[in-house]
Specification:
Layout: H1 4-19, E1 26-29, H2 31-39, H3 43-48, E2 55-59, H4 86-93, E3 97-102, E4 114-115, E5 118-119, H5 123-128, H6 134-140, H7 149-156, E6 162-167, H8 173-179, E7 182-185, E8 205-210, H9 213-223, H10 244-248, E9 254-259, H11 269-285, E10 288-293, H12 298-317, H13 339-350, H14 353-365, H15 371-394, E11 400-404, H16 413-418, H17 427-436, E12 440-447, E13 453-459, H18 465-476
Parallel strand pairs: 2-3, 2-6, 9-10, 9-11
Antiparallel strand pairs: 1-3, 4-5, 6-8, 7-8, 7-12, 11-13, 12-13
Bound molecules: glutamine.
C-alpha cells in the first residue's frame, strides 16, 4: 500500500527544486530513483521511523554508488562513485530518500559555494525579489555561504528538511548562518568520514543542516557510531541522544563564555547588536549567565589553519593525476611530454586557481627547509588553540562559548566576483572548532534590516555534543526565528 504522505513529500521536494533552479542548489539529481524508491515504501515501515520516507540531499562530496560525485570540479565531473559513504548508507537504511547531490565550492575550498557548476544563490534573495524574472534574479542573487551552500540553501528554503554537508573550517556553520537554518558540526570522530571525499583529514567533519533541533538529533542518532572503515572514529558504542523535549527537562543554569578574541568590533553594527541583544535577553530569563573568557591563540588560528590545511590538501590532491581516475588532458604531445607535463596540463584544465594555489602552497610549506618553520610551528599553534578551549571549559567552567559566524550580510554574486578573497577573515570565528575537533552549532537568530538571516554559533567541549544541542534548544526556545519557506511562495 503506497503512502500518499510519503509520496507527496518526495514530489514536493522535487517540484520545489525544479521551480527554484535559479538557486543552483544541485550538481546532479536522483529524481527518478527517488520516486522509484518512494513507490516501494509501505505505511508500516514509515510508522517505524520518523526518518522513513524523508527526502534528503547530500553534498556532492559524499560518495553514492553509481551516482556522479563531482566535488563541483571538472576534475571529477565524470566520476561515478563505486561505493556509498557510511553515513549516507545509514540514512538510506533509516528510510531517507536521496533526491540529489548539492552544489558546493570546488573540493570544499571557499565560502561562496561556487565551483565549476556556478554559484549557489541565497534563498533570501528570492524572497526579497518577488516578481523578478529569472535572468534578472541571477544577477541579483547573494552568496549562500560555503562550502556546503547547496545543502544549506535547500534546507533553509524548505525544499528538504535534512541535508548533509561537511565542515573543515566552517563549511557547514557558515552557509547555515548565511541561509538561515541549523548547521551542526559534531565532535571530530563522532561521525564516519568514510566515503566523504577528504579535504583536510584531521579537520574534516561531516555536518548536518536542519530546520529544527529534533531533526538534528534524529539524524545524528541514525548515523553516529563506530565504523570499521574509519580508523579516526571513536570506537566506543554511540549512546543515542535524547529528544529535544527530554533535553528541555534539564533546568541546570547555563554559563556561556564570550571570548574576547572573537573581536565583535569587527562585526557590522547590526550583527554586533544581534549578539549583544541575545546576551541581554538570555540573561533576563535567569537561566543563563555570561562570562568573558580568553582564547589567546585564537588570533593565530587562521594562519595555522591555512598552513595545515594546505599541507593536507597538497597530500590529498596528489591522487588527482588524471591517470587513475578524473579528468585526463587530450592535449598530449606523445613525442616529448613527460608524466609531469601531462599532470600539469590535466590539472590546469580541470582545477581552479584556488585549488591549484592551495596545492602549491601546501607543497611549499612541506619543503624540507620550510617544514619546521611552517608545518611544525602551526602544529604548536594548533595545540595552543586546543589548550585554550580546554582551559575555558575546565578552569573558567563555562558550558559552551557563544560566537559570531560571519560579520555582515552577504554580498551579491556580481560583487563577489570582483574579489573572491572577501570574507575569509570571518574564518577566524569558525576554524578554531576544527583545529580542536570540538562540536559547534550555527543557529539562526534574527533577520537583518536588509532581509538576511543573522546566525550565531555555540562551541562546546569535546564529545559534549548532546549537551551543546540541549543548550541550543533552550536558547532557541526563547524566541521564534521566521524560517523561510519558498515552497509556500507564489
Ligand atoms: N573557508 C574554509 C576554506 O575555504 C572552509 C573550508 C571547509 O570548511 N570546507 O578552507
Amino acid at each position: 500500500m503506497l503512502s500518499n504522505k510519503t509520496s507527496s513529500a518526495v514530489r514536493t521536494a522535487i517540484n520545489a527544486l525544479q521551480r527554484y533552479k535559479v538557486l543552483n542548489t544541485l550538481t546532479n539529481d536522483c529524481f527518478d530513483k527517488a520516486l522509484e524508491t518512494e513507490q516501494q515504501l509501505s505505511n508500516e515501515q514509515k510508522n517505524n521511523s520518523p526518518l522513513y520516507g524523508r527526502p534528503i540531499l547530500i553534498k556532492d562530496n559524499y560518495c553514492l554508488q553509481d551516482i556522479y560525485t563531482t566535488c563541483a570540479s571538472k576534475m571529477l565531473a565524470n566520476f561515478r562513485a563505486p561505493y556509498t559513504s557510511t553515513i549516507v548508507q545509514r540514512l538510506i537504511d533509516s528510510g531517507c530518500i536521496i533526491v540529489g547531490k548539492t552544489n558546493m565550492d570546488e573540493f570544499s575550498m571557499g565560502v561562496a559555494s561556487w565551483g565549476v557548476f556556478g554559484p549557489v544563490g541565497n534563498p533570501w534573495s528570492v524572497k526579497k525579489a518577488t516578481n523578478i524574472d529569472e535572468e534578472n534574479l541571477k544577477k541579483l542573487l547573494h552568496v549562500a555561504g560555503g562550502s556546503s551552500g547547496g545543502s544549506a540553501a535547500a534546507v533553509a528554503a524548505n525544499f528538504v528538511s535534512i541535508a548533509l554537508g561537511s565542515d573543515t573550517g566552517g563549511s557547514v556553520r557558515n552557509p547555515a548562518a548565511r541561509c538561515g537554518c541549523y548547521g551542526f558540526k559534531p565532535s571530530y570522530g563522532l561521525l564516519s568520514r568514510y566515503g566523504m571525499i577528504a579535504l583536510v583529514n584531521s579537520f574534516d567533519s561531516p555536518g548536518i543542516f536542519t530546520r529544527n533541533i529534533d531533526d538534528l538529533i534524529l539524524t545524528i542518532n541514525a548515523i553516529a557510531g563506530p565504523d570499521g572503515e574509519d580508523a579516526t572514529l571513536l570506537s566506543k558504542p554511540f549512546e543515542r541522544f535524547q529528544s529535544s523535549t527530554e533535553l528541555l527537562k534539564d533546568k541546570k543554569k547555563i554559563t556561556i563564555g564570550l571570548p574576547d578574541e572573537y573581536d565583535i568590533n569587527k562585526l557590522s553594527s547590526e550583527y554586533r547588536s544581534c549578539l549583544q541583544d541575545l546576551v541581554v535577553q538570555l540573561t533576563a530569563t535567569g537561566e543563563f549567565t555570561f562570562k568573558r573568557v580568553q582564547l589567546p591563540y585564537a588570533s593565530y588560528s587562521n594562519a595555522a589553519y591555512t598552513i595545515l590545511s594546505s599541507c593536507e590538501i597538497a597530500s590529498n590532491m596528489s591522487r588527482y593525476d588524471g591517470i587513475k581516475y578524473g579528468h585526463h588532458t587530450n592535449n598530449i604531445d606523445e613525442s616529448k611530454d613527460t608524466y609531469e607535463d601531462i599532470l600539469r596540463k590535466t590539472r590546469d584544465e580541470s582545477l581552479s586557481e584556488r585549488v591549484r594555489g592551495r596545492i602549491l602552497a601546501g607543497n611549499y610549506y612541506l619543503l624540507e627547509e620550510n617544514y619546521e618553520k611552517y608545518f611544525v610551528q602551526s602544529q604548536r599553534v594548533r595545540r595552543g588553540v586546543t589548550n585554550d578551549y580546554t582551559k575555558v571549559f575546565e578552569e573558567d567552567k563555562v558550558d559552551c562559548l557563544l560566537a559570531p559566524v560571519v560579520s555582515d550580510d552577504p554580498i551579491t554574486h556580481a560583487e563577489y566576483e570582483q574579489s573572491d578573497t572577501i570574507f575569509t577573515d570571518d574564518d577566524i570565528f569558525t576554524v578554531g572548532a576544527n583545529l580542536a575537533g570540538l562540536p559547534a552549532l550555527s543557529f539562526p537568530v534574527q533577520v537583518s534590516s536588509k532581509g538576511f538571516p543573522i546566525g550565531l554559533q555555540l562551541i562546546g567541549p569535546f564529545l559534549q555534543d548532546q549537551a551543546l544541542l540541549s543548550i541550543a534548544n533552550r536558547i532557541c526556545s526563547t524566541y521564534k526565528f521566521p524560517f523561510l519557506d519558498l515552497t509556500k511562495q507564489n
